[in-house]
Amino acid sequence: MLKNIFILGLSICTLYANAKKPKVAKPPLQTIIIDPGHGGVDQGAGGAKSTEAENALAISFKVRELLKQQIPELKVLMTREKNELAGGGNKQESLHYIANFANQNKADLFVSIHLNSTNVRYERRLEGYRTETYYVTTGKGKKKKKTPKTREVPIYVRYRSENQATGTQTYIWAANNYVNGTKESAVGRNTEEEEGIDSSFQTELTSVEAKIRANLYTKAFFNKSKKLAEMVEEEFAKVGRKSWGVMQRNEKSIWVLQATGMPSILVETGFISDLKEEDYLSSEQGQTETAQCVVNAIIRYKQNLEAAQKHADDLRAGGDSLPTQSMIKNVGSNNR
Fold this sequence. Notes:
The chain has 10 helices and 8 strands. The chain has helices at about 1-20, 50-70, 90-105, 175-180, 180-190, 210-240, 255-260, 275-280, 285-315, 325-335, and strands at about 30-35, 75-80, 110-115, 120-140, 145-160, 170, 245-250, 265-270. The strands form 2 sheets. A 6-stranded mixed beta sheet has the order 2-1-3-8-6-7. A two-stranded antiparallel sheet has the order 4-5. Helix 6 (about 210-240) crosses helix 10. The longest helix is centred in the C-terminal third of the chain and has 34 residues, at about 285-315. The two termini are about 55 Å apart.
């Protein structure tokens, strides 16, 4: 009898201890998508000796390599690994493939690598003169003859004008499209997948709680995207690159940023239209330094996420309440 009571008591204690065990939170950054811009029939901006597509791919390979070395636990996926459009098809189909690829792999972060460009101008310069021989016909009939003569002809060479636009820019999604809800829909599809919401691009969130949750996630993702973008530009500035800071392209949205349900940035690593910057971005040293700047920012971003997660865990351990999904659903129910 005493033995049975002892066993029962031990079992109750074990169950109680297991129930009290805090839930181990998953790492905040597990999967990252690296998207080398353009490719194949779409080479993007053209330089004097290289293209945006090939340089973006080379830099992206280096980003992946450095991430595997410096954050080995991180899963790194690339949208393309050849000089071709990601997913094949045309440009629009490729952009949709990229966003779907990131969403289906439940990525925690999306980083697109590009090169910038401005209008390239050419000019003619006089390089000197050459002597040209030509013939003049005189006389008629049997007296007709050709007489050689010479003249000086100018030599012009076409030169690519020096382009003054240089530096880096990092984009987050456009404010006007943020208001219109494109990002919320992408975020909602990812966070509501278990509830059976269709993953097609035309799907809209229907339930009130789903809309609320998507909106909350979107605002958090916007802040995280902005923070990472700022870190990227800070890292570029540290190595002496000219930084234009964090940008938004409001006049025309950037689809891969709008349609990905996670924090997302697009890094313009420099101006391929500038001869010196093209030389830098197509060189081994320049590509490695550029990639390391991006990786340094991701490391800092990851550390910030982990610090925030630890702070939240400490608050929970101390008994302080934090918003939960059930609380969000309750808000939704009250507004029906």
